[in-house]
Amino acid sequence: MKVKVLGCSGGIGGKHLRTTSLRVDNDILIDAGTGVTDLSLTELSMIDHILLTHSHLDHIATIPFIVDTVGAMRDKPITIYAIEETLETLRKHIFNWSVWPDFTSIPSAEKPFMRYEAIKVGQTLALDNRKFTVLPANHTVPAVGYQINSGAASLVFSGDTCTNDALWAVVNKIPNLKHLIIETAFCNREKQLAVASKHLCPSLLAEELAKLERSAEIFITHLKPGEIELTMQEIEEYAGDFNPRMLQNGQIFEF
Question: What are the residue ranges in the chain where pLDDT is below 50?
Answer without folding.
Answer: none
